From TrEMBL:
Protein's recorded name: HTH tetR-type domain-containing protein
Species per Swiss-Prot/TrEMBL record: Anaeromyxobacter diazotrophicus
Keyword Transcription regulation in annotation: yes
UniProtKB keywords: DNA-binding, Transcription, Transcription regulation
InterPro entries per UniProt: Homeodomain-like_sf, HTH-type_TetR-like_transc_reg, HTH_TetR, KstR2_TetR_C, Tet_transcr_reg_TetR-rel_C_sf
Residue spans binding DNA: 13-32
Length: 184
């Protein structure tokens, strides 16, 4: 993860990964056929963490607004605690050829949308969210807002270097994205 974040996908070599991991060059090839497969593995690991967090929010206590707010806060906290992971996922995976091929990445993305859409659907049915909210569009809107906000943080467009700035970003996301789903 660290090598991809520092050197970028195209600048990263398997030898760099081996050196960072403290293993022999050939050992990396024992587990991964090439750099694409290594990047896909890194991405799959990070998506697994995110999917678990979405499920925990969805299955946890609280109203739909609280669950969606928890997802927003979690995503921003990941940037605070693991900026290299966020950088790789957002700036290296998306522009990489074949990164969004059918398989685990696409399936997990669809699963993320489905989990968030279910929160929206349940929230609308209980009157916690707008009755006219379209669950899939609301889910992709929330996930898209998270992606672009985190990308902007990685690029330095949105400040997130201090605890105060991180908290400001979390409040703004919750107010603007989750607040937009509040009943009228």
């Amino acid at each position: 993860m660290r090598v991809f974040a520092e050197k970028g996908y195209h600048g990263c070599r398997i030898a760099d990964v081996a050196r960072q991991a403290g293993v022999a060059y050939g050992l990396v090839y024992h587990y991964f056929r090439n750099k694409d497969e290594l990047l896909e593995s890194v991405c799959a690991e990070q998506w697994t963490i995110f999917i678990r967090a979405l499920r925990a929010a969805s299955e946890g206590p609280g109203a739909a607004t609280e669950q969606l707010a928890g997802i927003c806060r979690f995503a921003v906290d990941v940037f605070r605690t693991a900026p290299a992971a966020v950088r790789v996922l957002l700036l290296e995976v998306v522009p990489t050829p074949n990164a969004f091929r059918a398989g685990s990445t696409r399936q997990t993305f669809e699963e993320a949308v489905s989990i968030v859409a279910d929160i929206v659907r349940r929230g609308a049915a209980r009157g916690e969210l707008r009755a006219d909210a379209e669950p899939t569009v609301a889910a992709t809107t929330l996930l898209g807002a998270l992606e672009l906000t985190l990308t902007s943080m990685v690029a330095g467009i949105v400040r997130g270097g201090t605890e105060e700035e991180i908290e400001r970003v979390k409040r703004a996301l919750v107010d603007q994205v989750v607040g937009g789903l509040a009943p009228r």
